[in-house]
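mind reviewing both lines:
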Amino acid sequence: MEKYELQQLRDLPIEGVAERLGMEVVRHKALCPFHADHHPSLSFNVRKNSYRCFVCDAHGGTIDLVMHLLHKTFPEACSWLSNGTTVPGGFPAARVSSSPPNVGGVPQRGKGVCDTKSFDPSRYARFFARPYLSPAARHFLFDQRRLDPRVIRWCRLTSWHDRNGVDWLQIPYYDPDGYLIGIQNRNLNYQRPDAEGPLSTFRFPLSTSTAPRFKFPKGSHCSIYNLPVLNKLKPGEPLYIAEGASDCWALLSAGHKAIAIPSATLLSKNDKEQLYTLHTTLYTEFHMYPDRDAPGERLFLQLKDLLPNLQHHHLPPSCKDFSDYYVKFKV
């Protein structure tokens, strides 16, 4: 096994591995399986991706946990982790698949949203089969954004580091059936000149590269985000609409079912058709926290025309969007 593959196993979410092993994790704690424990004494450090029992001093990372609990050798533990495909927690994993079935060259799932002539899902699907989160990605998602690790696993976020020293967060887009249709790469070293508040503080060195804030593989179509969540929506359960993937992660972490559109200025004809279809087929009420700016309010009015029962929620004056609201108040 290559070094980078071992690192990916070590970077698997420690709490997810524990749950897969049958442990019940509540508020980053669990009953220690290595001694007769009646009160949770095993603690998980999500930032360091490690565990430690403060009674019997059992400690380590993902591979150590599997080795000690299942009495496996190092290679056996790595094999066990490599073969796992289940994502624990409240959100089951969306399917990671190669390109959808084709009839006469026309995709039968995600029809009209993926340019299969230039975007090959099978080329990228393996990156999301076993997501890897770099220190920069963990800092962004868990320290800055304070997101629920189960949401990160559900969304299959992964990361990579390019030859110019830029850290990227890789965000997959799936159709409602769980087929990969697009990828968005977010520059984690990008610093907006107008950034304010707790989200602007970045502990990792900013790259001197002129890499853009976002980039997309050729042919990648990033339309409505998190469409697989529609299969988890119960009749009458509210569905939230976010502006951008970041707000969607925050809404999911707050316990809501949510989808997202790319931005206030990128509501395509296809997006509108999909949203209108949701309105006519889902027996649900739609909700939205528009960004506290003019484009956000204009977007709400556009969506209100498509979704007559869309409910407007106001953010506090100190918050510019739902992500900011979630970080400040952990709603």
